[in-house]
Amino acid sequence: MAGIEQRSIGIVMNGVTGRMGYRQHLLRSILALREQGGLRLADGAVLLPEPILVGRSEAKLASIAKDHGIDRWTTDLDEALALPDTEIYFDAQVTSARADAIKKAIAAGKHIYTEKPTAEHTEGALELARLARDAGVKAGVVQDKLFLPGLRKLKRLVDGGFFGQILSVRGEFGYWVFEGDWQEAQRPSWNYRAEDGGGIIVDMFCHWRYVLEEIFAGVRTVQCQGATHIPQRVDEAGRAYAATADDAAYGIFELEGGVIAQVNSSWTTRVFRDELVEFQVDGTEGSAVAGLRRCRVQHRSMTPKPVWNPDLPAGEDFRAQWQEVPDNEQFDNGFKVQWELFLKHVVSGEEFPWDFLAGARGVQLAELGLQAWREGRRLDVPDLKL
């Protein structure tokens, strides 16, 4: 790239030995950016991210670094944060370790980009937002599902007025996570221990908050029924342990304008859907079903007139009555797209709305969901302010 200015930016990446930290953030985002030659900025310069890997396992870090030609890694977070050429701290650790590490990074003057939830409790998440604001560092929280092709198509339909008045949203998320005895579990065992920050409400309600609010409307109330359907699982070392966290949650949310959203989240369901997450949106003028990549619609003018008759077999192919929404654009990996936006935010000051206050709203909804389940009642969702 002769004649093009190239800038480097050091990123301390903590938690890259985990599934999400490695696959989505290191491999498919930061290393993918490096492989494409860097990120082109508005002034024509190219930004090249330089990862410094941090984790608890020397062996895993060394292996990842060797596989991908990464020179710098350490098990000492303080050492990484002290490096003068690092500007960003990224966190993909277990939830229980996240807040303390972020506080260290803020104190070191680093800009922060982190997975969610940002903290275990709402007040802790707000504290991080205040600390980042007072330190003058930029902060961002991963909101990856907003960048899924299916949900971007759905947002396009909402913005275009396709639905008329939106009446309801129904979401189905989940799959069967093996117990770890006769087949290895697909998720780490800490996900099923409440004392380690596990639980599907803590994990997924953070997502549902930004999905509902960014695509439809603000969340005003929450009702939730949680469950620990499988009380005992087997960990990575083959030891049986008590599952103390919820592995399924059935939530009802009232949105501004009277829209009712019902979202089921489960690690104890077998998939009979086209994708692992799907949202059906029904409105006065039409309906849509959106997943990770696909989005299909049925307009009012094309809606059949089903008649309930349980004495006869169904004679209609209901799925064939829906139309596919075209891509109309190239969709890159959602995690990578948001990394690009955050890097531009840090380097060039471009807008990045998903800050620590947005992260705190996700934590708040998860905390209220747990409370609603515990108390068996509907709860209001108050506005959060710093």
Question: Can you walk me through this structure?
Answer:
The protein is an alpha/beta fold. The chain is built from nine helices and 18 strands. Helix 1 crosses helix 8. The chain is globular, with a radius of gyration of 22 Å. The model has no long low-confidence stretch (mean pLDDT 96).
In angstroms, what is the radius of gyration?
22 Å
Tell me the β content. Answer: 15-25%
Strand order of the largest sheet: 17-16-15-14-8-13-12-9-18
The backbone outline, from C-alpha atoms, is globular
The major beta sheet can be summarized as: 9 strands, mixed
Q: What is the overall number of helices?
A: 9
The helix/strand class is: alpha/beta
Order of helices and strands: EHEEHEHEHEHEHEHEEEEEEEEEHHE
Q: Outline of this structure?
A:
The protein has helices at 19-35, 58-68, 77-81, 95-107, 122-135, 149-159, 200-215, 334-348, 356-375, and strands spanning 6-14, 39-40, 46-54, 73-74, 86-91, 111-114, 139-141, 166-174, 219-227, 232-234, 240-242, 248-255, 260-266, 277-283, 286-290, 295-299, 323-324, 379-380. By secondary structure, it is of the alpha/beta class.
Any descriptors?
386 residues, alpha/beta, seven-stranded mixed β-sheet, 9 helices
Outline the secondary-structure elements:
Elements: E1 6-14, H1 19-35, E2 39-40, E3 46-54, H2 58-68, E4 73-74, H3 77-81, E5 86-91, H4 95-107, E6 111-114, H5 122-135, E7 139-141, H6 149-159, E8 166-174, H7 200-215, E9 219-227, E10 232-234, E11 240-242, E12 248-255, E13 260-266, E14 277-283, E15 286-290, E16 295-299, E17 323-324, H8 334-348, H9 356-375, E18 379-380
Parallel strand pairs: 1-3, 1-5, 3-4, 5-6, 6-7, 8-13
Antiparallel strand pairs: 2-3, 8-14, 9-12, 9-18, 10-11, 12-13, 14-15, 15-16, 16-17
Helix pairs in contact: 1-8, 4-5, 5-9, 7-9
